Fold these 2 entries.
Entry 1:
Amino acid sequence: MCAVKDPVVIHKGLDNVYVKESKICFIDGEASKLFYRGYSIEALASHSTFEETTYLLIYGSLPTRSQLEDFTKRISLYRSLETSLLQLIHSFPITSDPMDVLRTAVSALGLYDPQPASDRIEDRIDKALRIMAKAPTIVAAFDRLRNGREPMPPRTELSHAADFLQMLIGKTPGDYDAHIMDVAMILHAEHEMNASTFSCTVTASTLADMYSIITSGIGTLRGPLHGGANEAALKTVLDVGDPSKADEYVVRALAEKKRIMGFGHRVYKTWDPRYVILKKLGAELAAQKGETKLFETATAIEESALRHLAGSPIFPNVDSYSGIVFHTLGIPTDLFIPVFAMSRIAGWTAHAIEYLQANRLIRPKALYVGQKELPYVPIDSRQE
Ligand code: ACO
């Protein structure tokens, strides 16, 4: 064992470790509250748009009307892809996971930028906005190409959310669907120092370029314990198939020590406020489309899980209903994580920029517990 001078505390999972001061996001995990730049998530979901919320997250205050118009126009003009990038996406195997496609295409975007590593803050923000604007175009283009259809060009007159649905589905979405998509993107835009945001912050702290920063975030978001939980939660609901089978599923899963996807959170020890909003939207959307069975099955799983987990701090999180909302909007299941990523680029950017204002290289330590000073054994002398 390695002898250490002072007692070392290992914060497994970096639980309760603060890496910076921040003015971007506040979560009260005991009181079920979430604020972006001081504004409650309920107020933003009711009154804001994804474009306005992105401006707020990155620049720190709500825009004036003319600032918002300029910002919205700028994002809409950045949405189109270079022909060579479209050709690159076309060359990917159609069996590729869309999250791998997004990660690779965002990384490739840097190759088309003559000055990818410019470190002026305004340049960094501009690059991030270009990536954020193009992400829905990449995701929708790949989905159409893998289904043998031509990509739809972006339309500058549509909102970011509506344009994504238009490019994906091939027709202008109704106002209601566009609104639900917009709210879902607001809810996914930011969430303090989660795993993917930390990943972006670590990469930013090395003074790497925005393409590398956002590519790091996409890679980290991908896992089933983070962004992948929405896909897994919907798969559970589809597998269970009927509200009457929910309890049997929950009892078996918990007995087998499996996790109920869309439940539990490192910070929330009660209801995730985003879950509350998404459940309401999911119910409205299901009723509007006349497809209520999936929603009812999810609700039955939720009620059963809450009964069986009573007394523990495990409650539904954002992912318990986001998959149902995306599915009902016609978004394929394997695009859920890319849709999450498209939205979260706003928060990743805000944190990377904030960290860089008072940068210090992130370099934690590992407590060495292995052997030392071993005699080197030549290969011919080693026992097989
Ligand atoms: N279902 C059943 N039990 C659970 C669940 C769950 N969803 N979540 C945690 N637990 C249990 C664990 O089994 C563990 O029990 P034990 O102490 O008896 O071994 C205990 O609660 C603590 O679990 P940890 O993994 O240590 O808690 P942590 O704070 O690290 O977990 C996490 C957070 C990873 C989100 C966890 O709740 C989980 O795996 N949930 C399912 C996946 C999910 O929904 N992720 C989305 C999170 S939101 C987001 O990233 C957008």
Entry 2:
Amino acid sequence: MRKGLFGIIFIICILLTLAMPALAVTALKYATIHEPTHPVGYTAEFFASRVKELTNGEITVQVYHSRQLGDARDNVENVRNGTIAFTTLSVSNLSQVLPVLDVWSLPFIFKSDDHYWYVLNHPKSWEFMKQLEPKGIKTITWITSGARNFFSKKPIRNPADLKGLKIRVMASPVMINTIKALGASGVPTAWGELYTALQTGVVDGAENNHPSLISMKFYEVTKYYTLDEHMRIPDLTIASTKVFDKLTKVQQQAVLQAATEATAYMRGAWKVAEVEDLAKLKGLMTEIITVDKKPFQDAVAAVVKDEAKRLGGEDFVNFILQTGKNF
Ligand code: GTR
């Protein structure tokens, strides 16, 4: 009788111990290079609060904004070694891990925002991003970054105006080669160093989207903004497989659901931010220049083909270009 009772207590203890990891609160770090006022910043907070709700408080996500844990390239390494659980960054920054991912940086490959989202949500793109998993990186969701435009000290109205300029780019060979085809030199510079680089004349201009010009105050150190929309390089949220694989299946599902919700939230938030921030920029810069995109497209047409080949990404690029015909 007593033996039986001990046996039952013993089994209950074992079951409780097995249940323990799921009950303990896991605190995870999320790094972003953006300010809390930038759509990436507040989408990170949205994600954190949804993870907490969906896991009934088992997982808390602490968001570190404004490069507190480093710039984009540091965040890639810290995700890989598991020091941080999540980061949102440009897919261009992942070309340091897997060069073929730089095909996302190719100029004018998307017909429109709708085409871009069609491609991002297509199973082929998820499959393409899976190549990162053996490198310790899991793509958990896309976070848009809109279209990129030039901002500079001198007006850029056509490719000839880019001749001889130094234009800041991310650490992306495709971006460097694209800028070269436009007659300028691409200067890879970290995000956190760009304001000073513009201020001190290390570069003459750069390229980015409306919300980033506002959040980083680049309008203070450049006067002209040229809406040529030469690239749509997606941002994405990645998770460290070292961290993710340690979560229970239920927790993993909750994280993935929160990430999917974050994309939906961000798509709307981004549209609003683009409209509001462009309106602000009109009052803050000397001129917002609308251009005929054709001369820019013609100048970089060969880059798309050549770079896709160099990177061994022709199939994927052809998929993007083919699907564009329907948009
Ligand atoms: C921002 C984007 C970042 C990064 C940054 C940059 O718009 O959200 O991921 O691409 O531009 O140019 O370094």
